[in-house]
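Long-time lurker. I teach an intro course on protein structure, and each term I like to show students one example going from raw sequence to a predicted 3D structure in token notation. This year I'd like something fresh instead of my usual example. Would anyone be willing to generate the tokens for the chain below so I can use it in lecture? Attribution to the forum is fine with me.
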Amino acid sequence: MGFVDLFCAASMPVLKVLIVTAVGSFLALDSINLLGQSTRKQVNELVFFVFNPALVGSNLAKTITYESLISLWFMPVNILLTFILGSILGWVLMIIAKPPHHLKGLILGTCSAGNLGNMLLIIVPAVCKEKGTPFGDSDTCSEYGMAYASLSMAIGAVFLWSYVYNLVRVFSKDSANNQTETVQEVLKQPLLPSSESKSSDKLDGKLQVGFCFPNLEYSISMKQHWRKVSAHINLKAIFAPSTTGAIAGFVIGTIAPLRRMLIGTTAPLRVIQDSASLVGDAAVPVVTLIVGGNLLRGLKGSGISIPLVLGIAAVRYIFLPLFGILIVKGALYFGLVHPDPLYLFVLLLQFALPPAMNIGTITQLFGAGESECSVIMLWTYGLASISLTLWSTFFMWLVA
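-- Reply from a regular --
Happy to contribute to a lecture. Here you go:
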């Protein structure tokens, strides 16, 4: 299989993404305003709560079985490694560039979290439809490719909302509290002797309780610690609608009676699966339009330095893909993954994706680095048109 054939097969999906993204940017212009900020927010909520869960759930239910789920165990590990390596490279970048404190969570997030859902949902089926790919029949390739991409989206959503969400939250909170830290320390000091005696009385009481009822004291301490941890973890964000859709897809696909009722041309309740697929098919084009509209904000610029943005791009488009090749080839050598070219291609592609678009949503929630995030997304997604084409070509040659 020649390089030109592979390059054409890899470039066509990226060109399709660019065209639809450009349409989204055009519709978001102030003179057009068909996809303005308020409209994008409402449509994004529709995608988040309806389209993506339907897409993830329907594709996983159709293609995932108990046996195939066991064989795909390495994908969560692979995605976790992308986050770990991205975080390490992000720390190195921060040591070199020395960014402002409130941007550290944003930098770590964009270096560690790739667009593991939407980009794969766009690129993988489009690659399957091109001639000259090493993935065999286009229909079978599209079916399994959508399952791999849906599983990647579900796992990526869990890591994104449990890790990156808390990174941005912690650094934005630390930055906001930095100016008042000295005042708070002064206010914590005892002002009157009576308060000191009361605190010593409380300490004596706690010592007595701990001495007489050690298990009770330990239980109270554990409950207090758990409350503090629970207050800092957003469980609703972790169990996002896409994750819920993935759980439903896993249940339907792996439980044989449910699968027989919902999946297949002879299933009595197949209309439910067909309806979910019909709704989910709207996710890919709508999300691509929203990406184009969001990137338009990056043209307004911000105070973030261009070398820092290019450093993030280097992490995502040079260093992570190189580590990804070593990890996936090593896993294949030791027999940790099955030698399916499409599966290996998806695993490799997970290391070469642009940053997750939901990072912009997270920065909006905490009001830290929103304009800087827009500039990062504009540059990284602009460079992705070249990077994804080259890496996709090389990955297809590698797995062929």
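Some talking points for your students: The two ends are 8 Å apart (CA to CA). The chain has one domain: 3-175+241-399.
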